[in-house]
TrEMBL record:
Name this polypeptide is given: Homoserine dehydrogenase
Phosphoprotein keyword on record: no
Residues the record lists as binding NADP(+): 9-16
Binding site for NADPH: 105
Active-site positions on this chain: 205 (proton donor)
Main EC class the enzyme belongs to: oxidoreductase
């Protein structure tokens, strides 16, 4: 049986998980692929730092170059995170012609085109299954399983931290700061938590999925992103009364049907909290779990569900990539079809102002006659229809909530109308608005 040596850069939560998984299931992997993968060296920040799984000292070094540049190392994993040193590590390995396996979605988001070009230039491959949704094989599904499909729509719950917070807020009627603090105590949220709760982690992952779905690189700068800070228990309560659940979604949606190859395909690529029907399977995704709902023109609707993060789920995805990399080396497959093919002018990411959606709006208004008429007049002037109104009973005081469901309208028109409404003397707080996704 052929033997390939693995050099690992990063031995923390994910890295130690990969080391442990190889010790536990290395023989199973070898029997299945006909190649034995053995760890040669592991580069770490500090030899004696605590790890979820132990790594014997004989494998450890603090010099990543001693790992990547070792001529006896055939495969390299980059599991350190970040976009600076990690970029140098990956580029160094690729320029040596060594396949690289990474779990680093931020690195791919920031430098993906450069890294894939270097892999092509040096006749090797870059693998990244673990970069999106942990143990869910969504990259392989999009790249290989659905290779014969046009992806019409993709909706992803791709950040476990946000999903945990929204789940707890809905279930316990707890406010955002309370649940966030608990998530941090339990290790589900970082300190500071901005990358997760402001939607940027989901933005990185959604960009990768969008690029796979449409075959051309879509940078993070073209992705509209909004986080969950504005969601309150009141919003979740009223959404439930209307038959909806609020989830932070990564959305990749084809908006047109090009009549010829010369016409651009228009797509929406966004991250924002949205109301989705409570009866839909995505609404039942709870806690730290992730799910990706994919609609292909041939396959129809499919759902991928599972652990989105953590040492073991991510290690499973890394092992999958290690198996592919080992087989590619053994069989001499120096270069696969690139994942992302730059086709200028063929894909148009539609600006958010042009996206047409329904909306849920919560206003804090003075409780007196004529208020609704003034608000409706602004929407009427903007040609935005009101589908339903809820003014709940039981609220005391001068200011009460007013809930509106709006018909479909361009995002920019809704934004401008709400800005005007927010300036009305009878409106006592900035309007809160969430989009509604039917998922149909």
């Amino acid at each position: 049986m052929d033997v390939l040596n693995l050099g690992m850069v990063g031995g923390g939560t994910v890295g130690s998980g990969v080391f442990h998984a190889l010790q536990q299931n290395g023989e199973v992997l070898a029997r299945r692929i006909g190649v034995r993968i053995q760890v040669r060296k592991v580069a770490v920040k500090a030899v004696d730092e605590p790890r979820p799984y132990p790594i014997p000292h004989r494998f450890l070094t603090t010099d990543w170059r001693a790992v990547v540049e070792d001529p006896e190392v055939h495969l390299v994993t980059e599991l350190v995170g970040g976009t600076t040193v990690a970029r140098t590590i990956v580029l160094t390995a690729l320029r040596l012609g060594k396949p690289v396996i990474t779990a680093n979605k931020a690195l791919l988001s920031a430098h993906g085109p450069e890294l894939f070009r270097e892999a092509e230039r040096h006749g090797t491959n870059l693998y990244y299954e673990a970069s999106v949704c942990g143990g869910i094989p969504i990259i392989k599904a999009l790249r290989e399983g659905f290779v014969g499909n046009r992806i019409r729509a993709l909706y992803g719950i791709v950040n476990g931290t946000c999903n945990y917070i929204l789940t707890r807020m809905a279930r316990d009627r707890a406010d955002f700061p309370t649940v966030l603090a608990e998530a941090q105590r339990q290790g589900y949220a970082e300190t500071p938590p901005d990358l997760d709760i402001d939607g940027h982690d989901a933005q990185h992952k959604t960009g990768i999925l969008a690029s796979l779905a449409h075959g051309t690189w879509i940078p993070a700068s073209r992705i509209n992103v909004e986080g969950i800070r504005s969601v309150t228990p009141l919003d979740l309560e009223f959404a439930a009364q209307l038959g909806y659940t609020i989830k932070l979604l990564g959305i990749v949606k084809q908006l047109n049907a090009p009549e010829s190859d010369e016409d651009p395909t228009e797509v929406q690529v966004s991250v924002y909290p949205a109301l989705i029907p409570s009866a839909h399977v995505l609404a039942g995704v709870q806690g730290v779990f992730n799910a990706v709902f994919v609609r292909g023109d041939v396959v129809g609707d499919t759902l991928f569900y599972g652990q989105g993060a953590g040492k073991d789920a991510t290690a499973s995805a890394v092992l999958s990539d290690l198996a592919d990399a080992a087989l590619d080396v053994r069989l001499g497959t120096r270069r696969r079809r690139p994942a992302f093919v730059e086709v200028p002018g063929r894909i148009r990411v539609v600006p958010m102002d042009e996206i047409v959606t329904r909306s849920f709006v919560r206003l804090s208004v003075v409780d007196r006659p004529g208020v609704l008429a003034r608000i409706a007049a602004v929407f009427g002037q903007a040609k935005i229809g009101i589908a339903s109104v809820i003014q709940p009973e039981g609220h005391t005081g001068e200011v009460v909530p007013l809930i509106l469901m709006l018909h479909e309208a361009p995002d920019g028109a809704v934004r401008k109308a709400l800005a005007r409404i927010g300036r009305l003397p009878v409106v006592k707080a900035p309007p809160v608005r969430f989009r509604v996704e039917s998922l149909s």
